[in-house]
Amino acid sequence: MVGFSGFANGVVFWLNLALLITMQTYFGQFFSYSLPSEEVASIIGVLVNSICFLFMGFSPPAYAIPSGYQWLYTIVPHRFALSNLVSIVFGQCSDMPTWDEASQSYTNVGSELGCQPMANSPVTVGHITLKEYAEQYIGMNYGDLWRNFGIVIAWIVGFRILGLLSLRYVNHQKR
């Protein structure tokens, strides 16, 4: 099923996707509670989401983000959910294949998707597996899975608290 190596990975993928949708919902609720109108909340929401999508480490890849913007890459909440989504599918390889210089191919390629060689990789990248590419170029490691889940849950709680504080203390009524 779409590159998953088992039912458990499908469930973890679904759980991560559900948490991402919940985070996005609370993100939007916070903006709608704290800003004066629906239009302003929509515009600010699109702006902030665009910035988050730009700096979550996929395009441009994490290694290519300029050093002046690394702090954005570090704090963007979407990065952690995307990292989980990518690493669940492409980040697992129990026994990495070895590159054979004589035959110019990998030997001992496992059945997991992360063990597969990357086809048509750029010349600058050379020969690389999908797991290595995900880790080295877009900074998404399977080993960070549970830490990333915790960070996404912390962002969900943070957006929920900010939304509740906005409901309590922000008043946009005109008298």
TrEMBL record:
Membrane topology: Multi-pass membrane protein
One Pfam family it belongs to: PDR_CDR
Keywords, comma-separated and alphabetical: Membrane, Transmembrane, Transmembrane helix, Transport
GO molecular function terms listed in the Swiss-Prot or TrEMBL record: ABC-type transporter activity; ATP binding
The ABC-2 type transporter transmembrane domain, residue ranges: 2-90
Entry protein name: Unnamed protein product
Recorded superkingdom: Eukaryota
InterPro entries in alphabetical order: ABC2_TM, PDR_CDR_ABC
Domain named CDR ABC transporter: residues: 106-174
Record field: transmembrane: 6-28, 40-58, 149-170
Keyword rRNA-binding: no
Compartments, as annotated in UniProt: Membrane
